[in-house]
Amino acid sequence: MWRLKNEALGSDKAHNVQLLKVELEALNGKIPGLIALEVGTDFSKSDSSADVVLCATFNSREDLNSYIEHPLHKAIGASLVRKVVEERRMIDYTI
Question: What is the Cα–Cα distance from 37 to 41, expressed in whole angstroms?
């Protein structure tokens, strides 16, 4: 889950939320081991809410680790995520 900066990359938060959604969801089908990746955006706008949540499904922890190290994932992190994100929370879990 991420809270975004109010302004980053010359755009407002709403634009960057949508940009993150499009760019991250475009990873579907491009990274081996990534079964599904979905990006949700907050509509409540409460003080305790995040702006964006990323939910990804993998068959194994090894697939998760491969995703983390994959060049496409790293490229989005460097070119977009780190530039627009103010705060990050995460959880990895098994079902």
Answer: 14
Please list, in sequence order, all residues whose beta carbon lies within 8 angstroms of the beta carbon of residue 73, skipping any fewer than 6 positions away.
27, 31, 67
Whether 41 and 54 have beta carbons less than 8 Å apart is answered as no
Whole-prediction pTM value? 0.90
Which run of H or E residues covers position 82? helix 82-84
The structural domains of the chain, with segments of one domain joined by +, span 2-37+58-88
pLDDT category of residue 95 using cuts at 50, 70 and 90 = confident
Q: How far is CA 75 from the centre of its chain?
A: 12
